[in-house]
Amino acid sequence: MTERLSRRQLIQAIGAAAAATGLAAPDRVRADPRAVPTRGWDTIVVGAGTVGLTLAIFAAQRGGRVLLLDVADVTGGSLHVSTGQMSAAGTALQRARGITDTPQEHYDDLQRISRGTIDPVLARLAVFNAAPTFDWLFSRGFEPLPGHPVNGEAHEPYSKPRYYWGGEGGRSIMKVLQREVQAPVERGKVSILLQHDVYELQQSRDGRVRGVRVRDASGAEREFTGRSVVLATGGYAADPQVYARLSGRPQYINLSYRHCRGRGIELGLAAGGTLRGIENYMSNYGLVLASDDYPASVFARPSDFPQKRKPWEIHVNAEGRRFVREDVPSVDAREQSLLWQTGGRRWIVFDQAILDAAPPVLQNFTPEDLRGAFDGHPWFTRAESVAALARASGIDAAGLEGSIAMYNYGVKTGIDPLGREHHPLPIAKPPFHAIRTQATAVTAAAGLTVDESLRALRADGSPIAGLYVAGELLGAGSLQGKAYSGGMMVTPALTFGRLLGSQWLPLRG
Q: What is the pLDDT of residues 159-209, one digit of tens each?
């Protein structure tokens, strides 16, 4: 088969009906709080996002009754802000496009990319069940971008094309889930209560979780009970205080979903659960933020991918030293190197000749945009000498002068001290320029500890009866390890929601 296959042919390859159309109006999936019973639920899910919506769809197919509770005023959770990157091996779309791939190869790639830091049990569970999840999503109307799957470039590439996302990022996935949950809502199998904050789990004397206590937008409180509770609230990256306490680093950026504020971790720990994974904290290779008032928005994104734009500039730390070969092909190598620099900061340094000759150093910035930034943004500095540039930028002057001298030696001799291969011009013509960037992270590395069935675990390894955990609340470090492994946040959330709903949760049916 070729890429000229029609969508109808691809869906038939999965063995599903033609994709559904139309998106349920948001108010049609909301329940009247007064009409929602407080007892008799098979499961209560805290969070109406990727996990919660998927779980509800599949549990309802088994005849289960599901209550979704969310503090937000809309369903969808982090999919509202996510890029929606997915990865799955052995999908019908791969086969239809002549790509031979297996879950074992996917797992092996994850071990390679993460250097063995992923949770092997959860990672295997995710990737060996990912293809049926993606095939289901595709059959229900998800539209990958043309040419997908791909190997990927924003993160360390996979060995096979198994990387998918839609034209609207996470919203492409969200719209499918919102549409699919409409039918079980209308059948009375699923109820969704928004603007309901779960502030406590109910536990019996033996520790079994049997329900939740909630507070609605008016401050009124209610209790709901069920056979199990699933925590799927997302992480903690939107709360600067929680983020700093758990990671030991400031939260520099405000791109996380605003309701990911650590409530799920608070609930899980209060019920006897344990936290793990903070050692797998990761950050990107640095962004230009709008200000020093953190968390801040993104002002600019550097063009840091050598496969698209070879670097003409050098990258230095606060000590003025180059710390990585700027044209190293590995995304992970660049990210890992910045992780250990003072304050997670780097400066992109160049001169006037490079500014005049090189492709734009910032994505989607015109020359006029760049001139304006140097005239007004405090992270953009220029000066007539290297020493003056260092002082204005907050870089050690001796270190910067030494780094430029050694770089210029490499330009002249072809022998760069760090092994850099692309060095077209020396840094020698004033004025000299520097752009400061900051390593940032939008995901939460730490999460609650679970077993192979996603049951929350105590410190002694025993499961907390009636309590399950899925999604980012498992910790980004569990499924990505100490690296950014493409598609290993959204796809596992979908997959674990599907497995919980279709197989693992005890339902009366």
A: 999 999 999 999 999 999 999 999 999 999 999 999 999 999 999 999 999
Residue with the larger pLDDT of the pair 31 and 353: 353
Distance CA 453, CA 154 (A): 31
Tokens of 379: 């992270």
pLDDT at 508: 83
Q: What is the DSSP string of 240-287?
A: HHHHHHHHSS---B--S-TT-SSHHHHHHHHTT--EE-GGG----S-B
Same domain, residue pair 55 and 112: yes
Helix (H, G, I), strand (E, B) or coil at 444: coil
Average pLDDT (429-443) is: 97
Distance (Å, rounded) from C-alpha 46 to C-alpha 103? 30
Identity of the residue numbered 478: S
Residue bearing tokens 């599949």:
58
SS3 track for 131-178:
HHHHHHHHHCCCCECCCCCECCCCCCCCCCCCEECECCCHHHHHHHHH
Domain end position, chosen among 398, 413, 438? 438
Give, in order, the Cα–Cα distances in Å from 388 to each of 149, 165, 324, 432, 436.
48, 45, 24, 9, 15
Name the nearest CA neighbour of 352 among 377, 375, 384, 316. Answer: 384
Q: Whole-model pTM?
A: 0.93
The DSSP secondary-structure symbol of 216 reads E
The whole-angstrom separation of Cα 479 and Cα 498 is: 17
Q: What is the CA radius of gyration of the chain?
A: 25
Q: Are residues 331 and 473 in the same domain?
A: no
Q: What's the CATH number where 433 sits? A: 3.90.700.10
Task: Give the CATH number, domain containing residue 266.
Answer: 3.50.50.60
Residue of 276, 234, 263, 217 lying closest to 78 (CA atoms) = 234
Q: 151 and 209 share a domain?
A: yes
